[in-house]
């Protein structure tokens, strides 16, 4: 099959030599285009297939097949397919961030490849077909690393992920014949795709009804977390009012029970740089992680997202002359702070919390304190 596929491509390259990569320029840019669209460069084996699958995602503007990762200028398919040029077959995805975000693009990508095989992809063997994410910014790198850690914990692929994170340098569009191959040569494409074993593998992982009833990896991850929370909720509980009064200091009680706010820059965690998690001071519910903490300049500990949204609830707060969004813990019902829409990527949110509402658990103490389920947050550090 590899010989048959290669023969088609070599013939195509010869036939289209006048339109070959000599007329293309390498693309080297950031994650955002002049039109406000964003880009993702992904490797998942045969780019005929990954181009086809990513173009089905709502919000994707364009997908171009090509090559990245090698140092050879103007690579041809023949050079890349030999496995000696250092390039990988990739797709360059342009998407509208107002419709779909980077994690959702990765979600679609991972549900249509084998991310566990670093020796090739299905029938195509060699390093030029291995799975990889070419990140175009540190934000993309962090989103990809976090998402892959969650996928790993989910265990849906049954083998460890072997998908590389590689800094993006250049993208070389493939020969014209390869673009939209699944549309322009549908019979040959269908035959190759079936014979490659890709869909049989995906049916085994995600079910043979995955096309009619797709379930995203994010939905699977959230469902697993909800199930785990249901089974472990007995671990966390709200003590009696009398016990809460006895266990908390005056400022801790004022903040958590009377919806107070502690002084900016004069609280214990606003400048804490240790690795670990922050838990509810009353119940111990896991709330936030140092991996999502950033210096907001406000004087309060700020985070881009919670550890597990199942333990955090929000509600309108009209106590001032404008409406804010209050953040409370689910089980203890402690007032934690407020969330604002002026935070950094990837969420654009700023969870501005009161130190007095939380207790910090250093990463080296998490297992002993019963928070080993969240150690995956620190695996890439």
TrEMBL record:
Active site: 46
Region forming the signal peptide: 1-25
Pfam families (alphabetical): PMSR, SelR
InterPro entries: Met_Sox_Rdtase_MsrA_dom, Met_Sox_Rdtase_MsrA_sf, Met_Sox_Rdtase_MsrB, Met_Sox_Rdtase_MsrB_dom, Mss4-like_sf
Leading EC class: oxidoreductase
Keywords: Multifunctional enzyme, Oxidoreductase, Plasmid, Signal
Reactions this protein catalyses: [thioredoxin]-disulfide + L-methionine + H2O = L-methionine (S)-S-oxide + [thioredoxin]-dithiol; L-methionyl-[protein] + [thioredoxin]-disulfide + H2O = L-methionyl-(R)-S-oxide-[protein] + [thioredoxin]-dithiol; L-methionyl-[protein] + [thioredoxin]-disulfide + H2O = L-methionyl-(S)-S-oxide-[protein] + [thioredoxin]-dithiol
GO molecular function: peptide-methionine (R)-S-oxide reductase activity
EC code: 1.8.4.11
Presence of keyword Cell cycle: no
Domain MsrB: 241-363
NCBIfam families: msrA (TIGR00401), peptide-methionine (R)-S-oxide reductase MsrB (TIGR00357)
Function in brief: Has an important function as a repair enzyme for proteins that have been inactivated by oxidation. Catalyzes the reversible oxidation-reduction of methionine sulfoxide in proteins to methionine.
Family: In the C-terminal section; belongs to the MsrB Met sulfoxide reductase family. Belongs to the MsrA Met sulfoxide reductase family.
HAMAP family named among the record's database cross-references: MsrA
PANTHER family: METHIONINE SULFOXIDE REDUCTASE, PEPTIDE METHIONINE SULFOXIDE REDUCTASE MSRA_MSRB
Protein name per UniProt: Peptide methionine sulfoxide reductase MsrA
């Amino acid at each position: 099959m590899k010989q048959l596929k290669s023969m088609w491509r070599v013939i195509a390259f010869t036939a289209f030599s006048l339109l070959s990569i000599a007329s293309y320029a390498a693309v080297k840019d950031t994650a955002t285009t002049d039109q406000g669209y964003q880009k993702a460069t992904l490797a998942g084996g045969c780019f005929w297939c990954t181009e086809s699958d990513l173009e089905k995602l709502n919000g994707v503007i364009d997908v171009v097949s090509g090559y990245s990762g090698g140092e050879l200028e103007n690579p041809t398919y023949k050079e890349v397919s030999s496995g000696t040029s250092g390039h990988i077959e990739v797709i360059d995805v342009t998407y509208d961030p107002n419709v779909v975000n980077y994690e959702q693009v990765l979600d679609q990508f991972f549900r249509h490849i084998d991310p566990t095989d670093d020796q090739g992809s299905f029938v195509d063997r060699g390093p030029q077909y291995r799975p990889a994410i070419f990140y175009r910014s540190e934000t993309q790198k962090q989103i990809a690393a976090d998402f892959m850690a969650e996928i790993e914990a989910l265990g849906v692929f049954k083998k460890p992920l072997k998908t590389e994170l590689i800094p993006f340098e250049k993208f070389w569009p493939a020969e014209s014949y390869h673009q939209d191959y699944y549309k322009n040569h549908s019979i040959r494409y269908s035959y190759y795709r079936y014979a490659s074993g890709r869909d049989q593998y995906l049916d085994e992982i995600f079910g043979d009804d995955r096309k009619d009833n797709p379930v995203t990896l994010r939905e699977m991850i959230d469902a697993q977390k909800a199930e785990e929370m249901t089974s472990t909720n007995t671990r966390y509980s709200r003590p009696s009012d009398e016990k809460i009064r006895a266990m908390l200091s005056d400022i801790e009680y004022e903040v958590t029970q009377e919806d107070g706010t502690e002084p900016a820059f004069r609280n214990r965690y606003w400048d804490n740089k240790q690795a670990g998690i922050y838990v509810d001071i009353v119940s111990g519910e896991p709330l936030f992680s140092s991996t999502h903490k950033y210096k907001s300049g406000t004087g309060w500990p700020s985070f881009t997202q919670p550890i597990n949204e199942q333990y955090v609830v929000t509600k309108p707060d009209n106590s001032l002359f404008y409406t804010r969004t209050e953040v409370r813990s689910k089980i203890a019902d402690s007032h934690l702070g407020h969330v604002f829409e002026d935070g950094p990527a990837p969420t654009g949110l700023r969870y501005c919390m009161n130190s007095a509402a939380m207790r910090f658990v250093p990463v080296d103490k998490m297992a002993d304190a019963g928070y080993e389920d969240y150690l995956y947050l620190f695996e890439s550090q």
